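# step 3/5: fold
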Amino acid sequence: MIAKARDLQNNILLNTIRKLGDNSRESYVIFDAKKNYSIIDWNDCFCKLTNATSAQILNKDYFSLFPSEVQMTTIEMIKEKVHNGAMVQAKLHHNCFEKPPFWAEIQALPFQDNEDETLFVLLLVKDVTYYHTEDFFICLEKAIYEAIEKDNPFDKKMGIVCRAINEFFMPYVNSMILIRTEANQFRVFTANCNSSELSEINEYNEFYHRAMQEEAFILAENLEEIDLPLAHKKFAYSFNKRSGWFVPIRNQQQQVIGLFAIFHNHYPSDCAFFENVFGKVGSLVALAHTYAKTQKKIWDLAYMDITTGLPNRHSFVNRVEKEKEQGQRGFIKILKPSEFHQVVELYGREAGDELLRQIAKRLNENKNEHNEYIARFTSSSLIISYMTPYEDLTNYDRRIKELIRQPFTICGKQIYITLKTGIAPFDKDIKIADTIRFADNALSYAVNKSGTHMEVFTKERNDILEQQMQVLNHLSHALKNKEISVNLQPKVDLRTGEIQSIEALARWISPTLGFVSPAAFIPVAENAGKVREIDTQILEQVLMWLAERQRLGKKMVKVAVNISPDHFYYPQFVQDILQLVQKYTIDPSYIILEVTENIGLVDFQTALAIIQELKGYGFNTSVDDFGTGFSSLSYLQRLPFTELKIDRSFINDINDPATLAIVRSIIQLALNLGMTSVAEGIENEEQVEILRALGCTVGQGYFYYKPMPIEQLDAILDV
């Protein structure tokens, strides 16, 4: 009686549950919670939804309709809640019979007896595939846009797409994306971007090529029957997938850029749904691909030298900085062909680019190490990094000389070149920017050497460079405040010892730097274009001094003032000099303008015209430091100088027979050309006696007088 009563109650309960299901107007199924979740009732809508017959679902474990190995956690949660009498809602991938699975939203309503034991469960099942698919598209689109915004690499974007496809169809598929490259190869991407089983680049494959020509897609029931790369088959088999869909990926212009390879295990396919999904996913892949190509163009503009195709300086610095961050040590070389500018002048700028391109190509072909990076540094030079704690400079020297042994073909012409190299090391304590600066500094020394030559940076050179920069920074201020003063050093008659004339020497005592040697600030002024200003200030101080002596009726004496080549060839040079001497009413014959011996080699005709014009106004001219340059005797013969100064280096070594012969020749040359010979740097009586015997008439040096302030010379002259 008790059992019959219980059965009656259960039937009443089932009828009540059935009515609730019918009233819901949804697909529903009822299972027995105490008998392995076996299905005991359902409606026609559920059969249509799952494409099932009554015989197929009667007494079937409802949860067997789910791919439990993937959704086990969710299923166990549902079971636990219904046994506890709690209503539960979830979204699951729901299997069908001979039909593709669908995404189902289920509501489980448990019904319990008086002892709080769950007897039956009503499950309302709703097909939400459309909404789930739309959510999938929205989430994937958002993820791709975020990846683009963060400028993530293309492979990371493709990994996002593959993971999304796998999750959407889970557990039925594992996806792969193949993108065609310009070299007609395939780049391969999976959900795991770093998949070690697959090569990133795959060569041309006939089957993939055919699949890309299809309007829709190819369904391969058995992967063994198609010609896939072995690694791709192994990838599919590792997930127990034996079939595959192969779907072309098109961009907005309907050009095929790649292929989806979707591996599955006889997954029933709805063509319309399938094409819709992969059409939209393919659009996102095409967007990421277009963006990647655009980014590459931008990268090329930012990090590539367009004219040579080489990495540029920004790319080089980024690369070496990353190596340095990893603890690498190494060397940086700056390489410059000496003939670059001649090539450009003869054949054009493109020819110079081609020369650098060919040099870089030979360097790459002949390098022994793979950790060398070559980029374009300036318009005329390359920069090279070499990751090594020790640089074999002997090997590098051999390598460079071998590199230029054969001519370069430029504009159909064969040319031979020489290469200059500046080299500097870097490590964790030396900034890359400093190393580049040091290598550039070493290169500046190398370019002044003949032939193919390399220079290694030294701290001493950097100290000189820092000193030059410091001098340059203060020089403009010094000229503005007239800090450059005059010291005077007499030239004497070697026969009588009397002062014959005076040389004006620039001196700079900076309030900040202290005494600055002329050897330090004159070259800096020449390079900075400020030496003309120094020449003018020195000449004006000399003229003021002479004007004051003239006003007081004191003894007048000729003064030699050094004139730089830049000033000498300045268009208004003669007129400016003339205006100054007229301003102070000084006879031009009291002024000797000293120039270097190779002044005429720069522009002989202009030099001749200037010296003749100066001579016409009464100025004297002198050749300074004669014998140290490369003057032509024929030029010297034709230029009307009045004085020839023998460089002090010859006087220092006058006891050497060869040097003595040179000095004798210079003195004889001056005598034959009607010039006064002046010996610089005399330091002892022996030198005086030799010079007298050779016929030199005028001398200058510490043996007689050191350079001195104007006031001190005044006292000597006024005795």
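# step 4/5: annotate
The longest helix spans residues 271-303.
# step 5/5: archive (pending)
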